[in-house]
Amino acid sequence: MIIDKLENASRYFMLHPSLEQAFDFIESMEDDDFFTGKREIVGDHLYCSGISGETKGFDENIWEAHERYLDIHYVLEGKERVFFADPEEVKVKEAYNEEKDLTVYEGEGKEYHIPAGGFVIFFPGEIHKTMVSSGQPEPVKKLVIKLELA
Fold first, then answer.
1. Cys staple from 142: which of 60, 69, 75, 147, with CB 3.0 to 4.6 Å?
2. Which Pfam families has this protein been placed in (predicted)?
3. What is the pTM assigned to this prediction?
4. CB 121 within 8 A of CB 72
C-alpha cells in the first residue's frame, strides 16, 4: 500500500509503465468531467471507475482484495475512512471470483488517513476497506483506477 499526495505521484512511475498514464488521467479530470461508471483508458488493462455515493458504517462495507489489478483510489469531493488488514487479521468470507477479480474477507484492520489531495494504491493481495463513514453517511465522489498487473 502506498499513501501519498497527487503532487508526488511521479515518484511511483518507475513501478509500472502505465502508472504515469493513470495519474495523468486523474490530473486531467476537471469538475465538469466527472462521470460515474467505467471509462477505459487503455482497454481492460487500465480503466477508471467514477463513483458517486455515500460513505457507510464500518460493518456495511466489505473487506476486499484483488489478484489481477492494482487499485488507485482518489477522492475528488468529500471524505472517507480507509482501512488496511494484514492476512492474519481476517478470514475469507467469499472465495476468489475470477470474473470480478475479488476475494471478500471479514475481520479487523487498521485505519489510515489519506491527506487532502492524496491517493492510496492497493497492490494485488492487499486487503482493504474503503468508503467508510466517520459517523454519519457523507457524499463522496471518487475515482478508482484499475491497472492490470497479472
1. 75
2. DUF386 (PF04074)
3. 0.95
4. yes
